[in-house]
Design brief:
394 residues; alpha/beta; Rossmann fold; SH3 type barrels; Elongation Factor Tu (Ef-tu), domain 3; 3 domains; 24% helix
Length: 394
């Protein structure tokens, strides 16, 4: 009987290394592919070249496991779909999530298509998440994206834009394991990546100085930093029960007259809501946090302390074209609502919330006010440990 073929994205890290080992142990025909996503000299991402070391480690793991290995150059697609999108979003004063985009556009689109063209039955990654499925009453197979067993490493949030067709073809070999167990397997099998630190920075590229990166296309431009007093309680006005969802989801728009000038910056598009570092302003009792940016007027608004009311909202909106359901069978119709658990950033503990679907978009109201709800980031919603859908915050 012919073995099922799995092409795994070998990143040069311990997680994908162990995933490849487990697949081989399970009897699959395994092929390792390393994705080279960047070599554009016109935009310097880092003085280091982490992908060279990573590709070498991936090759050594493949040799150790006795599986075929090759490098595939996806840099053209990565620049068009990820980097250009990032520049565009930051230029608008929004904060994109390149890791989620990389999974949606590169790993589970371009890479998946390539793998299938090479005769793969499945693709696999080293993500800490799980997959299940059941047969619907209509007889079709419904796939479920579940959180990883290791709650501290759960990466389901990063896969929140996957669809049913992609889930059908993907395997997550380490999703049922704790990180410590993965390290132990790598050590036992003497894989070169056993002690390697987890990667940081842009997906499959490495650590990047984001301001330096952005300044290569978004030019510095001196502007004002305005400190907003706590007495301007924007959150209380938004949480008024008489207000509509539309009003509650609308971010308060400050003006320079609302506060006091406390410093200057080099471009509002380099900052994001909730940011603390990089302001270069001291002398206050508590740290200053960015509570809003205005890229058109090039003003940053800051508040003192992480409990400043300007950081908090309890309702956000996702426009109709940005609403994505992994479980399309549970999609809400206008007028429908659903109690869920939701998060607005990776590793945030799941929060109780309610979805309200309207003609104008999907509104999400949290039981507790949330800090630093940021346009351009993704909100993902769950039932128990199953990720049902996601959307870009308006």
């Amino acid at each position: 009987m012919k073995k099922e073929r799995v092409i795994i994205g070998l990143s040069g890290g311990v997680d994908s290394s162990v995933a490849a080992f487990l697949l081989k142990e399970a009897g699959y025909e395994v092929i390792g592919l390393f994705m080279k996503n960047w070599h554009d000299q016109s935009v310097t991402l880092s003085n280091e070249c982490p992908w060279l070391e990573d590709s070498n480690d991936a090759m050594l793991v493949a040799e150790k496991l006795g599986i075929p290995f090759q490098t595939v150059d996806l840099s053209k697609e990565y620049k068009e779909r990820i980097v250009d999108y990032m520049f565009n979003e930051y230029g608008k004063g929004r904060t994109p999530n390149p890791d989620i985009l990389c999974n949606r556009e590169i790993k589970f689109d371009v890479f998946l298509s390539l793998a299938l063209s090479l005769g793969a039955d499945y693709v696999a990654t080293g993500h800490y998440c799980q997959k299940s499925s059941f047969q619907s009453e209509a007889g079709s197979r419904v796939y479920q994206l579940l959180a990883g067993k290791d709650y501290n490493k759960d990466q389901s949030y990063f896969l929140c834009q996957l669809n049913q067709a992609q889930l059908e073809k993907v395997l997550f070999p380490i999703g049922h394991l704790q990180k410590a167990e993965v390290r132990a397997i790598a050590q036992r099998e003497q894989l070169v990546t056993a002690e390697k630190k987890d990667s940081q920075g842009l997906c499959f590229i490495g650590k990047v100085s984001l301001p330096d990166f952005l300044q290569q296309q978004l030019k510095p431009k001196t502007g004002q930093i305005v400190k907003i007093p706590e007495t301007l309680n924007t959150y209380e006005s938004q949480s008024d029960e008489d207000q509509t969802l539309v009003q509650k989801a609308e971010k308060y728009h400050y003006t320079a007259r609302d506060g006091a000038l406390v410093g200057e910056h080099q471009g509002a598009h380099f900052y994001t809501i909730g940011q603390r570092k990089g302001l270069g302003i001291g002398g206050f009792e508590a740290p200053l946090f960015v509570i809003d940016t205005d890229v058109e007027k090039n003003i940053i608004y800051v508040g003192e302390g992480k409990s400043h009311p300007g950081l908090y909202r309890d309702t956000l909106k996702v426009t109709p074209e940005e609403v994505h359901w992994v479980r399309t069978d549970l999609m809400l119709k206008p007028g429908d609502s659903l109690e869920v658990l939701a998060r607005i950033r990776y590793r945030q503990p799941l929060q109780k919330a309610t979805l309200f679907q309207t003609q104008e978009g999907l509104y999400i109201t949290f039981e507790e006010p949330q800090s630093a709800i940021t346009p351009g980031q993704f909100v993902a919603w769950y039932l128990d440990n199953e990720l049902l859908g996601s959307g870009v915050i308006a």
